[in-house]
């Protein structure tokens, strides 16, 4: 319900414009949902590709996440570990050795 502008009364806009408006709203909502699903799937595909790339072949200079709130740049690779230069001072000493299997893409 939207205010009609007549003394604060509320009015159902579909009762003014009829069923055609309801069908248009339903159509556009379905299209929006479809686009959202496609974008989510595309993002998931890109993330999985980057995850595989970083875990199979980590390189110096790769930006990585090593937890929910920690991220940094790989500065050394010595399998099965990488040395990550952490991004923020809150992360501690500045660098951290991390198992490759625990890396996530940024």
Structure description:
With 106 residues, this protein is α+β, with helices and mostly antiparallel strands. It has 2 domains: 1-56; 58-106, Roll (SH3 type barrels), CATH 2.30.30. The protein is built from 2 helices and 7 strands; from the N terminus they run E-E-H-H-E-E-E-E-E. It has helices at 13-17, 19-56; strands spanning 2-3, 10-11, 63-65, 71-78, 81-86, 95-99, 104-105. Strand 1 and strand 2 (10-11) form a beta hairpin. The two termini are 42 Å apart.
Q: What percentage of the residues does DSSP assign to strands (E)? A: 25-35%
End-to-end gap: 42 Å
Mean pLDDT: 86
Low-confidence stretches: none
E-strand count: 7
Structural class: alpha+beta
Described by the principal axes of the CA atoms, the overall outline is elongated
How many DSSP helices?
2
Oligomer: single chain
Layout of secondary structure:
Elements: E1 2-3, E2 10-11, H1 13-17, H2 19-56, E3 63-65, E4 71-78, E5 81-86, E6 95-99, E7 104-105
Antiparallel strand pairs: 1-2, 3-4, 3-7, 4-5, 5-6
Structure characteristics:
two-stranded antiparallel sheet; SH3 type barrels; 2 helices; 106 residues; alpha+beta; 2 domains
What's a quick, concise take on this entry?
The protein has 106 residues and is an alpha+beta fold.
